[in-house]
Amino acid sequence: MIEAILISVIIAATPILIAALGEVVAERSGVLNLGVEGMMIVGAVTAFATAQITGSPYLAILTAALAGVAMAGLFAILAIWLATNQVATGLALTLFGLGVASLAGESFVGRPGVKLGDIAVPYLSDLPYVGTVLFAQSPLFYLSIALTVGVTVFLFRTRAGLRLRSVGDQPVAAHALGLKVNRIRTLAVLFGGLCAGIAGAQLTLVYTPQWIDGLSAGRGWIALALVVFASWRPTRVLAGAYLFGAVTIAQFHAQAFGVDIPSQFLSALPYLATILVLVIFASNRRFTMVNTPAALGRPFVPDR
Amino acid sequence: MTPPLLEIRNLTKTFGSLKANDSISLTLGEGEIVALLGENGAGKSTLVKMLFGALQPDSGDILWRDKETVISEPAVARRLGISMVHQHFSLFEAFTVEENIALGLPDMPRAGLAEKARTLSAEYGLPLDPGALVADLSVGERQRIEIVRCLLQNPTLVIMDEPTSVLTPQEVERLFGTLRKLKAEGRTVVYISHKLEEVRALCERAVILRHGKVVETCIPAERTAAELASAMVGGAIANVGRTKRTPTPVLAVRGLDQPAATTFGTSLSDINLDVRPGEVVGIAGIAGNGQSELFAMLSGEELAAKADAVTLLGEPVGRIGIDGRRRRGAAFVPEERLGHGAVPPFDLSDNALVSRHRMSDGTAAPLGFLRHGAARRLAARVIKAMDVRAQGTHSTAGSLSGGNLQKFVVGRELDAKPKLLIVDQPTWGVDAGAAANIRQHLIDLAESGAGVLVISQDLDELFEIADRIAVIAAGRLSPAAPADTLTREAIGLLMAGPAPSSPPSASPPSTSPTHAAGPPSPPPASPAAEHSHAH
Amino acid sequence: MRIDLRRRTNVPWWAEALAPLLAFTVTLAIGSVMFAASGKPPAAALTAYFIEPLSEIWSIHELAIKAAPLIIIAVGLSVAYRSNTWNIGAEGQFVAGAITGAAIPVLFPGATGVWVLPAMLALGLLGGAAWGAIPGLLKTRFGANEILVSLMLVYVAQLLLDWLVRGPWRNPEGYNFPETRFFDDSARLPELIAMGDYGGRANFGIVIALVLAAATAILLTRTKKGFEIKVTGASPRAARFAGFDQKATTMFAFLFSGALAGLAGIVEVAGAIGQLTPVISPGYGFTAIIVAFLGRLHPIGIVIAGLVLALTYLGGEAAQISLGLSEKIAQVFQGVLLFAVLASDTLVRYRVTVTARGRGVPA
User: Which of B240-249, C131-140, C305-314 is least confident?
Assistant: First the structure.
């Protein structure tokens, strides 16, 4: 029972973790992309469609990632190269993505999906207690953990990561040093799209292998909140994602345990928890200030 | 004679309708220190940006050691051996010194970089701790990072853009020592400045720019500062007149304390100050020593803890906001024109309203309505009184040059006929003509019986207009002394801040370990044996 | 290839006016390609979308019904966005206003009289303002991100409505359908022109929308409050220098935009729908964001933009019937339109040059 709960927490946490990690990279470069929800659901429908046509969940992950990149590219052209308002452009991306996904998914409603199989790591999965929970999971879970480590190392241990952070902190100074501010930002945003696309694939290949209209249900937004909550630090994103995973799963099990609360209130829990967390972590201004990319949300237009 | 290091032929760069550089030609030899002189907007920055690859010329040629060269980006300039110390430091506050250096030197391996930087900085007399966070460093130390980063590339041509505008006189001397050492090593230095005495002391040749053209090349030591100035401006500069007056205070500050509002801010402690009617009081100091914080407290943008910390015309106003202080006869001009004193995308008519939107200004009507006609007339009046060069009241603030916008902002406040005017950096980045105009208006206001408080980094300016001068350093203010009893050296010592034995400026106890250490101690001098250069 | 931007120092007025038209044209072009790609003749599809709904009296009435909430919400949002306050949770405030406003006819079904409707509208305003006050307070008091908080509250409001109509507020005579009882006539917004050749369903909502747009235009251009909002949005430090309290402005923006969204909610429920159901909005709160930007955050522009976006809803339905096109296309259209609006805004503010790699010449 506890094992089953832990596994479901992991499954619920994985998509927001992957999407939030991508957004951490984008925001560290100074770009606020509010289109995560849109990129995610387009990734989800792309994965579902690919799996329907080819039967291969791995190909589905690949096409979902590419779809996420394409969406992010659209955003990058507007918000980075044409210096449009990032908040509005991100919203547009989400509205557009929700529309595209719902249009493309119309014919899939009610069809059974293809499930991405779990991979048991030899020997490790036989460990008592943690074996099945941690080592007999979907490959996307392993990917999410690898991404957490990879993004941490990249941002704080490599020169490329240093450059990316410098662009997000003081783009004018970075430009004066000869860094290609908007090129770096574009790459960061595309990486964000890649992650959001994969996160979407997890939804239709692992979480609920079927297509439901609007199935991302605000997870892209929660991923965005997670980035703020985590003060743009990947390891804290990991912790936050599992916290939200736990809250999400708690609502299902609360009813099973006979808690007499209307289901709508339980469904509202993840959203209310998000608000609570945003409030608590915004209050610690000093910590937030040191970690917030100083140029977040501000387009960079070089003099030429 | 050896071929010149760098030759420029007919370099031209246009921005819209403005010819920033108009067919500029000049030559730089090896081992020279050459001054590039000119007013703001004369085209100095544009020229060096093209040499550094940050801008592309529209036409003209650059010859590097007699070979035609296109400097398409800063990386190309770096490979040639051109390196630049920027006027506004391109540093990252939240990063360490070593990270900042690594960012500027993409081709250099990071391993051992910190050690190299430490050695080199000691060798040139610029002590620096590679592990320190830039946010914790003084302006002088920050400049050292830029210089060390530049020297680590073993450059043949070093461009320095107004390097001394933020330094104390003592730090300036130290910098000159470094530059002379560079020259002795056969490197060429291009020195951009508008401080003429410095140029006369340091440079063997001066190229003077005006309106994007080279108007003169001369040996600065053979000219007087006044001659150089008139060559820059293209005419004589009016002298500013000043007379003596007698005291009774309009502004009194008593024991004003304020903890730093942000991580990178300065806290103020025990500020005491009087401004009497009819006098100009100056506050000298290097940027970032609490000037902005003090201005915010005096203007009421930030409120003091106690009402009697700030007294305006005998009334305690410490807990009253900027609007209330204006109503009591004070007026304010902040340091930043764009985005603080004025709203860039708004026209001058709307910008007149920014500080003048009360019924008593005639621009407001009952029920919260505005009189736009009155605002327009107010703007027109200011434009006329201050000789602001603008197309009209419908011009946006952002389209005006720095000097003209500053004249507008100052004029808007003068138009209110204040009893107290507090000005932060009145002529920062303003051309000489407009600066003289503004200074004269400040003196005229004092002559008419008002008190004027001028916060400025420009010592020359303060000596020119202030009756008394106080110095702010690390959030503390020295007692104001009559200007004619002070020397530049005495002020310079005060500007350098409290002696090292005294505790660092009272930082809030909550600071994290990375910040709590206070100013980093200089690294131990490296042994003489380590005198090998980085390359 | 590289895109270079140079800021224009002076923007001609006609460029400002033409930008939304350009955006609309670009969207039509992209739409035509989309239709052609899905095998429908673009001309017929565009006719179905944008002409047919205007050719009959009843559908013009529907247009007014759909445009009213869009305009009311977007007018409120324009005030928020101009002060740089990012309220993107208007959909939630819409629902909140609908709930509080509907409390009277649902809880006191016997209530009749002329006071009922004004009281409902007032409660709608209050409910929306209260829902908007939450992100406003959390922002000004704790610095919590208002974009995310206001958005999260959309889901919460929708779930709250869902619970009410399935639980305590469900119509006792409604055969267990998840809906409240129908409102009494005195709790309904009357029709504008009920009878005659030009009669139809359109109610006074559109009149309320037009009055609010005019009033907000005066607020923004003629009053100190409007000046305060614009200065705060353009430059927060200058606003502080002017003596304007930024937190108060943020709070005002949330209360104002929340109140108007709430009013739109009760207008929709008391007008077009006549009861509460689990879903009362086809995303008006989000579409209104597009309306606000297409109208260049100007109340009068918003009136036109609101009519245009209302047309995409109607056109979506019409095209589904006449051509078998999915009505989901309308949402895609709306997204594309917002992209185009934002891009055209860049063309107004900057001179855009596209250069070939290296030391190229403007193309």
Answer: B240-249
- Structure pTM? 0.84
Residues of B in contact with C238 (CB under 8 A): 339-343, 354
C234 in contact with chain B, both atoms CB, cutoff 8 A = yes
Q: Determine, for residues C148 and A89 on separate chains, whether the beta-carbon distance falls below 8 Å.
A: no
Say which of C222, C237, C358 has its CB closest to residue B340.
C237
Handedness of CA B36, B42, B44, B47 (dihedral sign): negative
Angle at B52 between CA B47 and CA B56, to 5 degrees: 65
Cβ within 8 Å, pair A169-B110: no
- Rounded Cα distance between A224 and A34, Å, is 7
**Domain residue limits, chain C:** 65-295
pLDDT in tens, B111-147: 888 888 888 888 877 788 888 888 778 777 888 888 8
Q: Which residues in chain B have their CB less than 8 angstroms from residue C143's CB?
A: none
How many angstroms from the chain centroid is the CA of residue B533? 33
Q: Which domains does chain B have, with CATH numbers?
A: 6-236 (3.40.50.300), 238-329+418-501 (3.40.50.300), 337-417 (no CATH)
**Which residue in A23, A42, A89, A96 has the most chain C C-beta atoms within 10 A of its own C-beta, making it the best mutation to test that interface?**
A96
When scoring A244, A260, A264, A269 by the number of chain C Cβ atoms within 10 A, the one with the most, hence best to mutate, is A264
ipTM entry: 0.89
Distances (CA, A) of A135 to A117, B399, C221: 13, 63, 64
Cα gap C67→C74, rounded to integer Å: 10
**CB B276, CB B247: distance < 8 Å:** yes
Closest-CA residue to C142 (of A275, B309, B246, B225): A275
Phi, psi of B470 (to 5 degrees): -120, 160
H or E segment at A246? helix A234-256
User: Rounded to a whole number, what is the distance in Å from the CA of C225 to chain B's nearest CA?
Assistant: 7
- In this prediction, residue B527 has a pLDDT band, given cuts at 50, 70 and 90, of very low
- CATH H superfamily, domain A2-113+143-291: ABC transporter involved in vitamin B12 uptake, BtuC (1.10.3470.10)
